[in-house]
Structure formats: C-alpha cells, structure tokens
Write a structure and sequence with these properties.
The complex is a heterodimer of chains A (about 500) and B (about 350). With about 500 residues, chain A is of the alpha+beta class. Chain A has helices spanning about 10-25, 35-40, 65-75, 130-135, 155-160, 165-170, 175, 205-210, 240-255, 265-275, 295-315, 325-335, 340-345, 360-375, 400-420, 435-440, 445-460, 475-480, and strands spanning about 30-35, 55-60, 80-85, 100-105, 110-115, 120-125, 140, 175-185, 190-195, 215-225, 225, 230-240, 260-265, 285-295, 320, 350, 380-385, 390-395. Chain A contains 18 helices and 18 strands. The chains are: A alpha+beta (about 500), B alpha+beta (about 350).
C-alpha cells in the first residue's frame, strides 16, 4: 500500500522518542521540532486537502548536519521527506506520519553568480526569483518561471522539474540546470551533472530532476542564467469560439514561430481575474490568448507582425499589443493571478495539471464542460497553450464532504481523459500523493515495477519520500484504475466530443 | 506487435535463457565509439519507420531502426529539423543509435543536446518487457524521466524501439563569420558574447581562426553581425564547413583520422566553457563556445583525463587503435554503485552491450 496505515498512538510515541533521541545527537536543539503545535505548519504543502503530522521536523543549518541526520534516519529506517517552501501542488512534501520532515529552509544562500560562465550556484532553499534578482546586474536571468516563483525554492523546482509560462522557448527546469549536488539516502555526498555540458557514464540528471525527492536530497544547484531579452511584447487576442482559439495556437506553431509565451484562458477564468486585477481583459471573449515575443527590438517587431497576421487569419475578434512594459505586465498579471482569483470566487479549488497534444485543446475543454454537468461543479480553465499543459481549476466547498468527493472524481476524470487523448497526468506539478491513482491509468504494472527498480537503485531501503509518485500494484487494484495506453484504447467518454 | 518487433523480443528472450550477450546494432556507424562491441548482433534496422509526425505539435515519433537521414528528410520537407545536429559519421546511422550515443553537433551549446529533445521512448528491457516512458507532449513529469536517461546510455539499459522527439522550425536566417584570433582570445570572446542577447548558434576555433554561426530572425542576425564584425563567409562554403564539422569530414577530423591510423589518439574533452586553453600537446579544435575541445595527440591517457578533471570536466577517448585506457572516465563513488544498480534494474542478466559505456556493465 502507498498510504501507511494509521499508526497506533503508543508505537508512534515510542518511534518519536527514538527519532528525537537520534537526531538530538547530531542537530542543535533549536533545529528540531516535534511538539504538535510546532509541527502543524509543516502538515501539508500547497495541496491542502491532504494533511499529516510528521514525527519530527529537522531544520539543519550545515551540510554536515544534513548528512548526519540522514545517517541517523537511515540507521533507524525512518522515512525522510525533504521540503523546500512547501508550495508544491501535488502533496510531494506531505509529511510521512512515521517519518522525519527535512526542511532545507536554512540553505538559502546564493553562493556564486559567474558572469563569464553564465551560471549561478545556489543552495537548495534559495527562491526561484532570487536567482534572477542576483543575476540581474549582469543582464542575466534564470528562465523557468513557475507562477509561485516569489516563494518556491530551486530545490523544490528540481524535485518537480518545474515549468512556467516560458517553457516552450526556454525549456523546463531540467534544461536550465547543469548540476545538482546533494546527499544519498545514506548521507554520502553525490553530484549529478556538471558545469561541462555532459558527463561520463549515464546522464543521471534527468532522473534526479523531477524525482520528487525520491532519489537523493538536493543541497546545491548550479543553474544556467541566460541573457535577458532586450524587449518583450505581448499580444492579447480574443476569440468567440474555443475551437478557433485552439486552432490559432496550432497555426502559430505551424507558421514556424516559437513564442516566448503562449497562454490561454476561458471566459469564466477571464471574468474571475478581471474582477481581481483589472488587466483589461475582454469579458465577451469565449477564450483569450496571450502571445509573447521577446528578443531584439527589430526581432520582436517582425515576430509580433507575423503573429498578428496568423491570429487574425485564425479568426481573432479582438487584438491588442502591449504598448509598454507596464501594459505587458498588466496583461500577464491576470494569468499569473489565476489561482488567487479563483480563491476569491470559491471557498476551495483544486488545480489539475495534465498535458495533452495541442491540437486536442478544444476537445478537452468540451469534455470538461460535460464533466461540470456530470459532477455538478464549476471549473475555470487556464492553459499553457503552447505546451498543451492544462490547469483546470475545479471550484468546490471543502466543508461539504460530498463536494470534495465529486471534485476528486472530476479531477481524476480530467486526467484519465487527458491520457486517452494521448497526454499525461501531470505536466509540471508532479504526482506526489494526489495523482497516484491516475498513474495506474498511465503506466502498466511492468512500467511501474521498472520505476520502483530505479528508485531502489538509488535508495534500496526506500527511505526517501516513500509512498509517493509510484503506486503499488495493490493500490492500483484497490482504486480500480485500469491502464489505458495513450489514445489507443476506446474510451467511452470520447464519443461525446 | 509487428513481426520486426516480435523477432527482437524473441532474440532477447532467447539470450536471457541462454545467458548470452547481445550487441545492439543500428547502422553500425558508431561501432568505433565507446567500449568495443561484443556479443551476438541484435539488428534493430528492420524496426524502421516514422510512426507519427505532426509539424504543428513539434513532435515526431520514430522507430529505433529508422535511418537518421530519412527522419531528417521528412522534417526538412516541413521546414523543421533536429536543432542539435547529431553527427552522421557514415551513411546508415539510425535514430536509435543517435539517442544511444547521445552525440550532438556544432549547435549543442546554444540549443541543447539529444537528451533535451527526447520526449518519450519505448524501451525493451532485459526482461524482454516493452515499456513506455515519457510521451509525445512537451511537459510531462509523470514518473522518473527514463526516456531522457537513454540519451548517451550506449544501449546498456535496453533496446530503444521507438522514440518521440521535440523538433523545431528551421531558423529563418543564418550567417557565418570568420575572425582571426588566438585561442585564448577566442574563448574569452565567446563567453562574453554568450552573456549578451545574440543569436550565436555555433562556434569553431582552429589554427588561429574563429568561425561563428549566427542563426535566428533576420533582424537579430543582422544586428549581431554589426556588433561582432569579422568577415562574412559565402553561404554555400559555410554550409559545407558546418556539415563537415558536424559529420567529422572536415580538414581537422580527416587529419585526425590519419594521425589515429599512425598511432595517435583523438580525444574529446568536455569542460566548462570558460576553461582557459589547455596546455596539451597536439592539434586542438575548440567548439561549443569553449565547452568542447578536440585534441589529437600521442600524450598518455592519464594526462588528458587529469587535465579535463582539473578543469571540472571529463575526457573521452574518441578514436584510437588502442582503447585499453577506456573510452570514458569511470564513474566515481557513489555514482559507480548507482550505475551498477541501475544496470541491474533494467538488464538484470547483463545481456545488452556489455562494456560499451562502463567497463564490467
């Protein structure tokens, strides 16, 4: 089973005493929290519907302390869950009730920005945006920009292979990380990748990036920082039909243009964010596209013209180009505030994160509209349209257990439909605990067993973040989820499209 | 399943039962690379064909035995390409071989390597199980990213039966410049330019001459040319030069091959781009903005390996008649253990490509 059984209170208390005793020997007293009132702030991450109290929260301050803490946990077979800012949206940092939460919050130093090499070496707990701020004096920045970039840490970005709104042109975390230095589950120093462009042997960096804290503990990351484009401008395009908006996205790519950003939102989402940030969104539009171009002023002028041509040819009903940086940021403010804006129109929301082939955007939106009826819940939609990465936000009231239940079914339905359309259950938020059931749909038992074998190659005792990401055979059987090979098997709901 | 795949699966099952070793072969154009091939040949060439290609999705899915030339022709027809310019050492190279070797051409430093374009793969592991990882979409974090692990794995984890790759439109404008300068200045300039928003796509320094390729929007290329200066190279000559460099047919590599036949070794040093000129004997060609140094030398392996390691990189014995020093530097602890365990996780009986990547694996 992936979910540990509710622990018996007495054995839990005994285990907690052991953990505190062992960790007290290697960590200063102020770096250990175990009283209930102190561990409450750690009981969930950005996925607040799931909560657990860890036995102990450890907040080491030096690498030597982390290594000793890992050795102590390894000796006692205590599960370890590493944690950055806790902004993750899939429960990847959900504590293990019989384990230790290892906070890397104290590792918040920018160690070096190398202007000539265009790299930054930072500790795991450094915030995403702080890297760009440190590189700004050199005209450089760190490209991946997840919406939570003010708060989320680079260590967490590495764990999730975080994306953002500029991935199509600038890549994901993996494409912008050169080296990850950290510790194995046994507390040994280990380094993946290099400041050179390749390494001898297997390239383990792609396994570690996106591994959700299951393979190693990240202490330090060397990232690429790239020249900041001289200029960026953004087109806001309105469409009166979802399918036409989806086709416009494909048309831009087909025209040989790789926009710096290509985002879509539907009418209810536009209404919610307009009410919140007053970005000047067209409230009559059925769908709004944001298309950004960046580069030299000449390059941007050329590309904006080409994109305007394609968009009007694709049937845009209104087109507006940002006149200056303030207006560009205004256009984006709506998109970047989609989540808090949803929080204002509903007591709770659950954000999905599947990816589909771009050409199926209209199909999935139509399917989601059908699901709103089926589950009796509203859903507002934002997309990284350029990557086909969807973020439907299902609105519900968590105080009503039935609504929560329907919301979970709704979410799982979106994910399964995405897989059936040839996509994946998670584009950038990770599996964590939230999508364990959906992983049974995407992967066969043999594929899941291969994943477990990869984990054991790094972590034979399964001490790092156990129970996350890969569902066991037993769990899949229990959830009744059937493996659907992308787009190949008939899927009843598809008939409705 | 189809007949070509069935035969491969049967051969793997048979090798497993008989405890024999298999040498996974595409076109055999990179047999010289890595540790020496051994075992019974497992021919992947019959597993050929483009499974799906949708230019507006920027994704192509190809079977492992497909000729790289066929894939590139299909992409070119739609104005798209593999931006990392995989080398074609001879005719007959396959897409599976391209991914396994993980080698990229002149544009590597600017656009990323093979790994960065892999989106998904179907792998036949050592238990003869056909497994799918990744997919055909740009963003996918479901499970460990096994498909990208295959880039550069030299076939030791299994047979790449199918791979999905991100492709990109061919850039609208390209311009090649020549500038005379010594190697130290070239490395310094390349890193300075790299820190500015310039469409620098490839670079090569050899014998006092730096050749640069700019690639991007017309306006950006023209602006960069004005900034960098130098002499514009005729586009036809320039295309031939970059192709020769990519496929190792140009003057430097032809000379290197001759020297290798005479007992020298061709080394590929992968180092941080800012590494100063390496004081090593022999001809040197510097690519990738300083991050790749080709050295044709008779110096002992240890000298090359130490120089690369001291700079924070590694040295590959690329071509030599005697490869007893090992093609690649062996992984250091604890990575050596992780390598052994990963090999066991995918290929518990040690069937595939023994010794091609790591001695003993």
């Amino acid at each position: 089973m992936n979910a540990p059984l509710p622990p018996d209170a007495a054995s839990r208390a005994e285990r907690q005493r052991e953990a505190v005793a062992a960790l007290s020997a290697v960590l200063p007293a102020h770096a250990l929290l175990w009283q209930s009132e102190d561990t409450i702030p750690y009981e969930c991450d950005g996925l607040t519907a799931y909560r657990e109290r860890p036995l102990v929260v450890a907040l080491p301050e030096t690498e030597a302390q982390v290594a000793e803490a890992l050795k102590a946990c390894h000796a006692l077979k205590l599960p370890v869950v590493a944690r950055g800012a806790g902004t993750g949206l899939s429960g990847g940092a959900l504590p293990n009730p019989m384990g230790v939460t290892l906070s890397l919050a104290k590792f918040n130093k920018i160690l070096n920005v190398d202007r000539a090499a265009r790299t930054a070496t930072v500790q795991a707990g450094v915030r995403n945006l702080a890297i760009s701020e440190a590189a700004a004096p050199y005209g450089l920045y760190y490209a991946p920009d997840p919406s939570s970039q003010i708060a989320c840490t680079i260590g967490g970005n590495v764990a999730e292979n975080a994306g953002g709104v500029h991935c199509l042109k600038y890549g994901l975390t993996l494409h912008n990380v050169l080296r990850v230095r950290g510790l194995t589950v046994q507390g040994e120093p280990v380094s993946f990748g290099s400041e050179a462009l390749d390494v001898p042997g297997l390239d383990l960096l792609p396994l570690v990036v996106g591994s959700e804290g299951m393979l190693a503990v990240t202490l330090e990351v060397t990232v690429k920082v790239v020249p900041k484009p001289l200029l960026a401008r953004c087109i806001m395009a309105s469409f009166d039909d979802i399918r036409r908006a989806g086709d416009a996205v494909a048309a831009i790519i087909a025209a040989g243009i790789i926009p710096a950003g290509l985002e879509m939102m539907d009418k209810p989402m536009a209404a919610a964010v307009e009410d919140y940030v007053h970005a000047g969104y067209d409230l009559n539009a059925v769908a709004i596209l944001l298309c950004e171009s960046d580069g030299t002023p000449e390059e941007v002028a050329e590309e904006i013209d080409r994109m305007l041509d394609v968009l009007s040819g694709a049937g845009a009903t209104r087109l507006e180009v940002s006149k200056d940086e303030a207006q560009r940021l205004k256009f984006w403010s709506g998109r970047k505030n989609a989540f808090p804006a949803s929080g204002r129109i509903s007591p709770d929301y659950m954000c999905m994160d599947s990816t589909i082939p771009r050409k199926r955007l209209a199909d999935i939106l139509q399917a989601i509209a059908g699901m709103e009826q089926k589950y009796g819940l509203r859903c507002v939609n934002v997309f990284h349209a350029g990557d086909g990465n969807l973020h439907p936000l299902i609105l519900f009231d968590g105080n009503d257990p039935d609504q929560l239940h329907r919301c979970e079914l709704f979410g799982a339905d979106i994910l399964e439909t995405s897989v059936a359309l040839g996509g994946t259950v998670t584009g950038e938020h990770g599996v964590g605990v939230e999508k364990l059931g959906s992983m049974c749909v995407q992967f066969s038992p043999e594929e899941r067993e291969q994943f477990f074998a990869v984990k054991r190659a790094f972590d034979p005792g399964e001490g790092l973040n156990p129970g996350k990401v890969i569902p066991t055979l037993h769990r899949c059987a229990e959830s009744g989820k059937m493996h659907v090979k992308g787009g190949l098997l008939p899927f009843p709901e598809l008939e409705r499209f | 399943m189809d007949a070509a795949l069935d035969r491969i699966v049967e051969q793997v099952q048979a090798a497993r039962v008989a405890q024999t070793r298999l040498d996974i072969r595409g076109g055999g154009t990179k047999a010289f690379y890595g540790g020496p091939p051994s075992g019974e040949p497992l021919e992947v060439a019959p597993l050929a064909g483009i499974s799906s290609y949708e230019p507006s999705e920027l994704v192509v899915t190809v079977r492992g035995g497909t000729l790289l030339a066929d894939l590139e022709a299909a992409l070119a027809e739609k104005g798209q390409c593999l931006p990392f310019e995989p080398p074609r050492f001879a005719q007959g190279g396959t897409v599976g071989g391209m991914v396994s070797a993980g080698l990229a051409g002149p544009a590597r430093a600017a656009v990323g390597g093979v790994r960065d374009y892999v989106l998904g793969a179907k792998l036949l592991n050592g238990r003869a199980e056909l497994l799918g990882f990744g997919g055909t979409v740009m963003k996918n974090v479901a499970g460990y990213d096994v498909s990208r692990l295959l880039a550069g794995s030299m076939g030791i984890l299994g047979v790449i039966c199918e791979v999905s790759l991100k492709v990109l439109p061919v850039t609208p404008a390209t311009l090649t410049l020549r500038l005379e300068m010594n190697v130290a200045t070239a490395i310094q300039r390349l890193n300075e330019w790299g820190g500015q928003p310039l469409p620098l796509n490839a670079s090569a320094w050899w014998e006092g001459m730096l050749v640069l390729r700019l690639s991007g929007a017309g306006a950006a290329v023209r602006a960069a040319q004005a900034k960098i200066g130098g002499e514009v190279v005729d586009p036809v000559l320039a295309a031939a030069f970059w192709q020769g460099l990519r496929d190792h047919h140009d003057e430097f590599f032809v000379g290197a091959l001759r020297a290798v036949a005479g007992g020298a070794s061709l080394w590929r040093l992968s180092v941080p781009a800012t590494t100063p000129p390496l004081a090593l004997s022999g001809e040197q060609l510097v690519e990738w903005g300083g991050a790749q140094r080709w050295i044709c030398t008779t110096a002992p392996a240890a000298t090359l390996r130490q120089a690369a390691a001291a700079a924070g990189g590694h040295a590959v014995l690329f071509r030599a008649t005697d490869k007893s020093a090992g093609a690649f530097a062996p992984p250091a602890p604890p990575l050596d253990r992780i390598h052994r365990e990963l090999k066991r996780a995918f290929d518990p009986d040690g069937i595939f490509n023994p010794g091609r990547l790591v001695p003993g694996l």
